[in-house]
Amino acid sequence: MLARPESFFEDRFGLTSSVMERLLGSQLAGRVDHADLFLEYRVSEELTLEEGAVKKASRHVSQGAGIRAQSGERTGYAHTDDLALPNLEEAARQARAIADQASTSTAVAVGTGRPHDLYTLAEPPVTAALDRKVALLLQMDAAARALDPRVKQVIASLGSEDVIVLIATPSGFAVGDVRPLTRLNVTVIVEENGKREIGSYGGGGRVPFDFFLEGDRWRRFTSEAVRQATIKLHAIDAPAGEMTVVLGPGWPGILLHEAVGHGLEGDFNRKETSAFSGRIGQKVASELVTVVDDGTIANRRGSLNVDDEGIPTRRNVLIENGVLVGYMQDRLNARLMGAAPTGNGRRESYAHPPMPRMTNTFMLAGHDEPADIIRSVPRGLYAVNFGGGQVDITNGKFVFSTSEAYLIENGEVTRPVKGATLIGNGPDALTRVSRVGHDLKMDEGVGTCGKDGQSVPVGVGLPTIRIDGITVGGTQV
């Protein structure tokens, strides 16, 4: 794909800067606070190997434009998958027709800053040779079966995409981005004495295909999936009741993302539906807790050079030493709250309007040795991996299922358990953090976040932490 989005859309669709300025100016000038045009061209590919054979191979190309007009709290949004100028003009008219029904409001002047260059690749993953990708999936299948005779089924998949976007406004501002993304995943099913268990692992990011070959990363993914599955074969029922929980580093940061992160997004706080609404400057967590959302980490799955409104991403401190210091903002909510956008305006595709969303969200490291944290717990749960979860933004209540957890007995990690769920309240749980390890780790690059029917890639991270007094749902009492 082309490295310059402006040239790409001009050469392929005739959308020059003057055409876009005329489109936005003629259709959206007047009684709106903000307007923009979002152009997108996406090539995506997916391969799935099952039972030793490629069961799915697809390649999809999509293109389209979304036009937005904002007036007051009202947003008019129209989109089309046909980039011909008459269709764009009609979309602009429809967007303004919706926004025009609201009264005007005062806009906040915003500096755009300079875009980053976080993931320029010599070869985007979607362009790597197909035979190399199939060979890798076959290697993973063979390696998983060779690791343990109890492996009965292997499902390996590789998904890649390359997305070109261009965002333009009536003022003549335009910024583009070329966004590669890839993810490799393997799932294994093991069986012993008629009992079956499943394990899954993977990773990726805004990286080339060869990322998976470096240091036999694919082999580590495979062995980790097998390890997780075989451990479950001998897991005991999880205990139930209130206890100390130690979260391992990395992917357990998904609990932070869901139970706390969504509540710090600007739209929920502007509407005062978040448990964190109106609490800027207040203590909301243990003084050991500092939470950051950072979209500027090179090659990470949740990173962006600019967000989907053309604002360069940045490092946003949300909670600092236990005190709430900021929210994540898109243009609309920032304007209505008298704040500045934070580079968190995101959308699933051209067919969706942007909203405030997380990028890479994590808790900063502390000073404790992880082993010392575990030794400090006479009886508790050590949660290493999580599956699904639910959270109520209005009150912060969450329920999360662990996919890998162990008992802590007399300061030692002992038996694996199954069926453990963590039940609590996000803001309350943060006040119960009593130890924070120095081992901050980001997830491998598999996170996808859903909100209001839109899904976007994200990253999470966490050091080893101890939380006192979390309710654990299980079967033993």
Could you explain the architecture of this structure?
This protein has 10 helices and 24 strands. The chain has 477 residues and is an alpha+beta fold. It folds into 2 domains: 5-232, 2-Layer Sandwich (PmbA/TldD fold), CATH 3.30.2290; 237-473, no CATH class. The strands form 5 sheets. Strands 3-2-1-4-5-6 form a 6-stranded antiparallel β-sheet. Helix 2 runs parallel beside helix 3 (85-99). The longest helix is centred in the first third of the chain and has 18 residues, at 130-147. The radius of gyration is 24 Å and the shape is globular. The N and C termini lie far apart (58 Å). Mean pLDDT is 91; it is low at 102-111.
Give the arrangement of secondary structure elements.
Elements: H1 5-13, H2 17-28, E1 34-50, E2 53-71, E3 74-80, H3 85-99, H4 130-147, E4 151-168, E5 174-192, E6 195-205, H5 217-232, E7 236-237, E8 241-247, H6 253-261, H7 266-270, E9 291-294, E10 315-320, E11 323-324, H8 331-337, E12 345-346, E13 355-356, E14 360-363, H9 370-375, E15 379-391, E16 397-409, E17 412-418, E18 421-425, H10 426-431, E19 433-436, E20 441-442, E21 448-451, E22 454-457, E23 459-462, E24 465-473
Helix pairs in contact: 2-3, 4-5
